[in-house]
Amino acid sequence: MLSVTVRNLNNEPVSNLEIDSVLSEPPLNTTLIWEAINEYRARGRAGTVATKTRGNVSGSGKKLWRQKGTGRARISSIRSPLWKGGGNVHGPQPRDWSYVLPKKKRWKAIASVFAERLRENGVTVIDSLSLPDHKTKSLNSKLAALGLSKCKTLIIDSRENRNLVLSSRNLAGVKALDPLGINIYDLLFHEKILISQSALTAFTSTVKRILGKK
User: Fold this and answer.
1) CATH classification of the domain holding 170
2) Domain span at 106
3) Which one of 128, 160, 180, 203 has the lowest number of neighbouring Cβ atoms within 10 Å?
4) Are 50 and 93 in contact (CB under 8 A)?
5) Are residues 89 and 193 in the same domain?
């Protein structure tokens, strides 16, 4: 097991904490991370692009001239794809791009990235993320004390912590997440992770439950 120092918001050491092996020992599995990232991005695709087929464009369906005897190419209507302003052939249509990666694979990838962040000393564990108010200035000063004010920082704590949720919304490069909302994209995008001790416990139990670890 890996041991980390638990600090308070003033960057003072409080205690030591043993990180469970389920979060500290997984190797960096780049293939699994690639699969998880692709699934996350596919879920985020809108899939709302569309083009009009000959059944959608405006215009009469009347045959413009008789089939034979005019010396001109046969034609059906002005909505034909062969005409300017006609329908589009095989154009993109609204669709759902998302697909489901097995839950164990997704959380193994998350554990792999978190373990790598631990090895990079990119994880700071806080005893409590209780803030006196919901002002952005208050949270920014605490991040500065922890040396995280100039980093892309992912803050993980309960969604019930309203002061944290409200104060983090206007800080560039800072995002607050609930332990159950941890995803592969945010773990990779943010350079540093600030997590409360209670959130770390909840995160560990979630990973162990899904991966079937005791």
Assistant:
1) 3.40.1370.10
2) 2-46+98-211
3) 160
4) yes
5) no
CA distance 103 to 173: 28
**pLDDT tens profile 10-57:** 888 889 999 989 999 999 999 999 999 999 999 999 999 999 999 899
Q: Are residues 74 and 39 in the same domain?
A: no
Give yes or no: residues 131 and 69 share one domain.
Answer: no
**Do 38 and 55 fall within a single domain?**
no
Q: Name the strands in the sheet holding 192-196, side by side, starting at the edge strand that comes first in the sequence.
A: 13-19, 2-7, 123-126, 192-196, 153-156, 174-177
86 and 178 share one domain: no
CB 129, CB 157: distance < 8 Å = yes
Question: What mean pLDDT is predicted for residues 92-116?
Answer: 94
Q: C-alpha dihedral over 125, 126, 127, 133, to 10 degrees? A: -160
Query: Three-state DSSP class for 110?
Result: helix
Using left for φ > 0, alpha for ψ between -120 and 50, and beta otherwise, residue 173 falls in left
Total of domains in the chain? 2
- List Cβ neighbours of 77 (8 Å cut-off, separation of 6 or more): 54, 59, 60, 61, 62, 63, 64
- pTM (predicted TM-score): 0.84
Angle subtended by helix axes 103-119 and 197-211, to nearest 10: 140
The DSSP bridge partners found for residue 125 are 6, 195
C-alpha 211/C-alpha 193 separation (Å) is 22
